[in-house]
Amino acid sequence: MATFIENIKMLNEQGELVETTITIDEGKIIAIGGQKPDGAQVIDGNGNFVAPGFVDVHVHLREPGFEHKETIATGTRSAARGGFTTICAMPNTKPVPDSVENLEYVKDLIKKSAVVRVLPYGSLTMNEAGEKRTNIAELKSHGAVAFSDDGVGVQQASTMYEQMKDAAKVGAIVVAHCEDNSLIYGGVMHEGKRNKELGLPGIPSVCESVQIARDVLLAEAAGARYHVCHVSTKESVRTVRDAKKAGIRVTAEVCPHHLLLEEMDIPSDDANWKMNPPLRSSEDKKALIEGLLDGTIDCIATDHAPHTQEEKCCGMVGAPFGIVGFETAFPLLYTNFVETGIFTLKQLVDWMTIKPAEIFDLPYGKIEVGASADLTIIDLNKEKTVDANEFYSKGRNTPFNGWKAKGWPVMTIFEGNVVYKEEE
Length: 424
Ligand SMILES: NC(=O)N[C@@H](CC(=O)O)C(=O)O
Ligand SMILES: [Zn+2]
Ligand SMILES: [Zn+2]
Fold this sequence. Notes:
The protein is built from twelve helices and 16 strands. By secondary structure, it is an alpha/beta fold. The chain has a single domain (53-364), classed as Alpha-Beta Barrel (TIM Barrel), CATH 3.20.20. Helix 6 (206-222) packs parallel to helix 7 (234-245) and helix 7 (234-245) runs parallel beside helix 9 (282-293). It is globular and about 65 Å long. One zinc ion binds next to loops.
């Protein structure tokens, strides 16, 4: 039976909101702006905004291996609540999808319990240990969406170079967490002003940028497509900008928290403010915003990284890096960047839908006839306070608890089915 969504507004090419209707059948969009087909089930959009389901190319679902932090079931429900319908799962699980067998195992788990589309990464090295290289061609043919050792940087240039050459042969994308281990210095936050005030060890900006600089040169030499994870420093932005100018096939993502927060916002030695890369300086934050606006940075990804309260209870030094992101990403960005006139609504939506989809060759992230019926209905006027205790994610680790924001998803539709509906 067809579903007819009425009383809804969508963005046109000019970035204006226009009233429309959307008709869905068999999981696909079959009409935009048409009349209700006879017998169709009706969804009242209540005059709200409808966006393509969000696409997040950088998330951690923790299953298999770390189900106490998150499972595919809880993580994908959290994604749906945040308006995400396509998410790419990083391979730092146990086991790591570094072989066809392990990848098939992860795909089975996804099939069993995901409520949105989950596309698994393959790793670049066996067990993400940085030594033995994985078989990119084989993993790609079994459905790995891209390749990364996220969680750690690939330390050896030759390992990265060889993997890039293999990736180039089969059109695979190499996605890099850039971090030079010799420049971490045991740091738990940015090496700047605030870490000194708090008496905590710092991670200098070069720890990230130096590896991006190496990698863009390797990508050029290998002829590979290269995507940089969670860019956090102004030097990283400049390096990506220069590489693009030189014609190197590089793309980059930025996380909501790096756009919204800076080191001086960290109130105390609280591990809900600990993530990798760390919150940088206000100049870095400014450079990230400029980088998005001038096209140096291509898209936004949450790096949703749930950890338990026990792990995050007791200060930064002992805690793992990472914060959750699905359920706050859009409202926080909408409120702080669109309502303030820094981004247009179309820019923000594009950075969370069509842009990441294009980089990763995914046929999602747009509302058009024939596309998968993946939609997010958002109440742009609805104001709510972030309450970590009501997250669908198992993770409560967010620095945004208590923030007021507008623009909350009220319904998420995946392949024509309602996978999230706001509880009244
Ligand atoms: N971002 C983080 O702080 N943590 C991520 C790993 C990663 O993205 O590097 C995690 O898996 O917890
Ligand atoms: Zn990372
Ligand atoms: Zn990550």
